Amino acid sequence: MSKLKNKVVVITGGNSGIGFGIASEFKNEGAKGVIVGRNQETLDSSVALLGENFTAINADVTNLADLERVFAITAEKFGKIDVIVANAGGAVTGAAFGTVADIGEADFDKTIDLNLKSVYFTVHKGLPYMNDGGSIILIGSNAAHRAYASFSLYGATKAAVIHFAKGFSNDLLDRRIRVNVISPGTTDTPVFDKFVPAEQLEAVKNYWAGVMPIGRIGQPSDIGKTAVFLASDDSSFLLGTEILVDGGLSYLAK
Ligand SMILES: NC(=O)c1ccc[n+]([C@@H]2O[C@H](COP(=O)([O-])OP(=O)(O)OC[C@H]3O[C@@H](n4cnc5c(N)ncnc54)[C@H](OP(=O)(O)O)[C@@H]3O)[C@@H](O)[C@H]2O)c1
């Protein structure tokens, strides 16, 4: 399989969960490039699995100088970039999820920094290093479409990310860069470990499998295969659109 043969890719959060699932599928399709994260241990173990065509860069996507460094190093090592995946996000280290009654300014700012501002600046900083005709993939969430307890702020950032795909595509028409967004439903990633005590993990995942109309939670490969489609010429007529990869969670009433 070589839908992405020699395409240069940058995947933020490529050292865990959905990001690693995307990187693995990209690798299977012949891509090369960079994964970005802050945990050196998982960066090293992930890049060892991805093989010699991938490099890991330790960087914080909420830091604009770090983002600049990521794209400069990528372009120097691999040449101009064809695909950017702005995936890093989700649970914020040191910031709580909560209701509008609970979340104050400090946690608000941290959540916006990771789940919204970083997406904007990943694209902004990456563009000068990108080939015309490339593809940018943003990661939204089904939480943009449904109100889950304590997820108002997170859901709002993802709703804004879905808008970014439309707005950025419009902004970039002259460069033929397509921007689309994948919104996952509940997906089996290490994010569960951040919220759920180890002894309850299986029960919580089983609960979600029961909630999902399709009867199982998503796997990172489900998102990865969709990302291959959006990165490749197979999706050349798609821009500014959202693909829900959510097992029916957003719109099917079970
Ligand atoms: N899992 C789900 O059910 C689900 C559902 C809908 C949407 N999503 C979205 O999917 C994306 C990936 O989530 P996941 O479930 O795969 O979570 P995950 O396993 O916790 O992975 C999050 C990734 O983001 C990176 N990251 C976090 N903060 C960062 C920062 N400041 N700078 C650089 N990298 C950072 C992490 O790397 P380091 O720890 O090394 O920094 C890690 O690679 C997120 O945008 C999330 O909102 C997930």
Automatic annotation (TrEMBL):
CDD domains: SDR_c. SUPFAM superfamilies: NAD(P)-binding Rossmann-fold domains. It holds the Pfam family adh_short_C2. Transmembrane segments: none annotated. Gene3D superfamilies: NAD(P)-binding Rossmann-like Domain (3.40.50.720). Belongs to the short-chain dehydrogenases/reductases (SDR) family. PANTHER family: DEHYDROGENASE/REDUCTASE (SDR FAMILY) MEMBER 4 (PTHR43943), DEHYDROGENASE_REDUCTASE 4 (PTHR43943:SF2). This is SDR family oxidoreductase. It comes from Flavobacterium cupreum.
